[in-house]
């Protein structure tokens, strides 16, 4: 499977295998195994935490729900869990704007330019179904290259916040 087709599917459905905004962390780790823990999102609190399966990064709330999803694509290769890509884990990176748009169109995923993340040497587009943002760097005199794909959170207001202050 082509990695851009995988990313277009994520942008269309908001899902990558067991991973979606609001997914239960136990379900994700049961399906994908234990991730690499990157750390916390704040210096003052233990939660939310950032975990990674290669270049798939997930922010997990203290209530153990996935609250943000991103795929880092700025490296030389993009590594994703093999179980969500059809067996291949590592892909060459360097995805151009036209290739991303073509993959979204093939997937039937509507998109539009995203002005709030378009400025200076970057541009962005947002998909209509999931609100995923594809953000590109724009090198001088070159076609934009994909830097990151992110799915915004759903405004989750954690019920665990007041239930257990010891986890903060």
Explain what the structure shows.
- With 168 residues, the protein is α+β, with helices and mostly antiparallel strands.
- The protein has one domain (3-167).
- It has five helices and twelve strands.
- The chain has helices spanning 3-13, 25-32, 82-85, 97-106, 160-163; strands spanning 15-16, 19-20, 36-40, 49-53, 56-60, 66-72, 77-79, 90-92, 111-113, 122-127, 133-137, 145-151.
- The chain has an eight-stranded antiparallel β-sheet with strand order 3-4-5-6-12-11-10-9.
- A hairpin with an 8-residue loop joins β3 and β4 (49-53).
- α1 (3-13) crosses α4.
- The longest helix is centred in the first third of the chain and has 11 residues, at 3-13.
For this entry, give a set of tags.
two-stranded antiparallel sheet; alpha+beta; single chain; disordered C terminus; 168 residues
Query: What is the helix/strand order?
Result: HEEHEEEEEHEHEEEEH
Strand order of the largest sheet: 3-4-5-6-12-11-10-9
- The average pLDDT value, as a whole number, equals 88
C-alpha-based Rg, rounded:
16 Å
Strand content: 25-35%
| Total helical elements | 5
């Amino acid at each position: 499977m082509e990695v851009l087709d995988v990313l277009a599917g994520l942008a269309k459905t908001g899902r990558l295998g067991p991973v979606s905004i609001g997914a239960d962390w136990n379900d994700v780790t049961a399906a994908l195994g234990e991730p690499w823990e990157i750390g916390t999102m704040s210096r003052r609190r233990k939660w939310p935490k950032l975990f990674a399966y290669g270049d798939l990064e997930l922010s997990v709330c203290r209530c153990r729900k996935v609250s943000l999803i991103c795929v880092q694509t700025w490296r030389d290769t993009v590594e994703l869990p093999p179980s969500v890509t059809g067996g291949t884990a590592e892909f060459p990176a360097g995805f151009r704007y036209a290739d991303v748009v073509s993959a979204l169109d093939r997937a039937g995923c509507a998109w539009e330019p995203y002005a709030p993340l378009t400025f200076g040497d970057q541009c962005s587009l947002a998909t209509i179904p999931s609100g995923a943002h594809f953000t590109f760097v724009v090198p001088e005199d070159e076609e934009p290259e994909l830097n990151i794909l992110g799915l915004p959170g759903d405004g989750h207001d954690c019920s665990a916040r007041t239930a257990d202050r010891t986890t903060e």
